Amino acid sequence: MALRVAIFADETGWHTRQLQAALRARGAQGRCVDLAECRIDTGVSWHGLVIPGFGRELPDAAIVRGIAGGSFEQVTRRLGLLHALRELGVPVYNDARAIERSVDKAMTSQLLHAAGVPTPPTWCCESAAQARRLVMAEGAAGRALVLKPLFGSQGKGLRLVGSVDGEPQALPALDAGYGCLAYLQRFIPPLADPGFDWRVLVVGGRAIAAMRRVSRHWVHNVAQGARGEPAPLCPALAALAEDAARALGMDYAGVDILPAAAPTPLLVIEVNGVAAWHGLQKVTPFNIARALVHDLLDRRLARERPLAETACRA
Ligand SMILES: Nc1ncnc2c1ncn2[C@@H]1O[C@H](COP(=O)(O)OP(=O)(O)O)[C@@H](O)[C@H]1O
Ligand SMILES: [Mg+2]
């Protein structure tokens, strides 16, 4: 019987089709499932999980492509389902723990720092008074800070505070959009005009593709209008991205890296655990979905399942 892989996605489209085709090419089957539609029913099976399309069975593996936003309880429950699958022995790619580490920007920054991976100085606190004091002190030293939503993505909600182009910029109210806390990171000024950063994709511990994201605006996300350009994967860039993915325990990761002035010319600013790769695929000569699927089947599944079982299902 073909391996059955659950692709957890809140919306289907290019990425899920790419994954399904790559799985098909390996003789496996990828079925898209919305985590919001999975449920717990202890009357149905020994394990108590109901995953639409899998009957009473569990998938052989799962790929997490998207988790819809929702209430604190809903998101906790959806992540709980991924934790449960891991505890039941189903390889989840990326694991819920890795997703939690990367979704929470403060946890990412702290783990990178503790692992010795170069990242800009970063602060996160719940006290608005403390945050204001920090912004004033940094501003007085002529520096700007980036205020980011803790669970932000696609460059949304980023603001410069402190000393911005020589003018003082105060911290805004932290409630709406910032979850009543301040995640602040020292602003690393662009070294060129237009400025850029790199997105490096790490799969199974190895950096496999990179692009430069170039834009006049200092927020270089493709979703904010940056242009993706092919970029050579030089050894220093590859090694740094691999270190960052390892520090967060990721199977695969999209690592954002900024160029900076000496003494640390490369700084990791973010590690994406549910990374999109549409932009990167446009400038990459090989198929990225296939690289992900090969890593899942040949490394993760082979490691966690007895070889004989995998072979007889193939
Ligand atoms: N500390 C910083 N200094 C300079 N630019 C930054 C800094 N942090 C983020 N940026 C810019 O903003 C973009 C988005 O920030 P990031 O932390 O990756 O959040 P998101 O999850 O929204 O992508 C980065 O790709 C980079 O171009
Ligand atoms: Mg980013």
Task: Write a structural description.
With 314 residues, this protein is α+β, with helices and mostly antiparallel strands. The protein has 3 domains: 4-94 and 290-313, 3-Layer(aba) Sandwich (Rossmann fold); 122-186; 191-273, D-amino Acid Aminotransferase, Chain A, domain 1 (2-Layer Sandwich), CATH 3.30.470. 32% of the residues lie in helices and 26% in strands. It contains 9 helices and 16 strands. The protein has helices spanning 14-25, 72-87, 96-103, 105-114, 128-140, 235-247, 278-282, 288-304, 307-313, and strands spanning 4-8, 29-33, 39-40, 49-50, 61-64, 92-93, 122-125, 144-148, 159-164, 167-169, 182-186, 195-203, 206-215, 227-230, 252-259, 266-272. Strands 7-11-8-9-10 form a 5-stranded antiparallel β-sheet, sandwiched between helices. Strand 5 (61-64), helix 2 and strand 6 (92-93) form a beta-alpha-beta unit. Helix 1 crosses helix 8 and helix 3 crosses helix 4 (105-114). 39% of the residues are buried. The protein binds adenosine-5'-diphosphate and magnesium ion (MG). Adenosine-5'-diphosphate is lined by residues 120, 146, 148, 152-156, 158, 185-188, 197, 218-221, 256, 258, 269-270.
